[in-house]
Specification:
Layout: H1 7-51, H2 56-66, E1 77-80, E2 90-100, H3 104-110, E3 112-122
Antiparallel strand pairs: 1-2, 2-3
Helix pairs in contact: 1-2
């Protein structure tokens, strides 16, 4: 019987790229899920601030403060309608956030995706 010393090394070399791809895929899924949950929570907080009659600057700042873990900027928060809101009307907060993949193969194929969250609340 011939020596089989290198067989496990060859098998490991064949399986390693798949394991690394799977690991990076899990990390990417976790990052995207975290960003989505953060955007959802920031949108609710901003809509709550808008529903009690605060101005647009305070609404945007509330969203940014709540999504500090993902580095959200005020330019990504859209408040509609802008300006003074009357009681009984609805206010809509839309937050968009671009996210890049860490996984090399998927990142090159898909590129960047944009997460979006819209929250609507009645003004008190």
């Amino acid at each position: 019987m011939k020596s089989q010393k290198g067989q496990s090394l060859v098998e490991f070399a064949l399986v390693l790229p798949l394991l690394v791809l799977l690991l990076f895929g899990i990390i990417d899924f976790g990052r995207i899920f975290h960003a989505y949950l953060t955007l959802d929570h920031a949108g609710r907080e901003a809509a709550r601030i808008a529903s009690i009659g605060k101005n647009d600057t305070d609404v945007r700042q509330a969203a940014v403060d709540d999504a500090i873990s993902i580095g959200l900027t005020e330019g990504r928060v859209d408040v509609s309608p802008t300006g003074t809101r009357t009681s009984g009307t609805k206010v809509s907060i839309t937050i968009t956030y671009p996210i890049d993949f860490l996984t090399p193969v998927i990142g090159e194929i898909v590129g960047s995706i944009t997460l979006s969250d819209t929250t609507v609340m009645r003004v008190e």
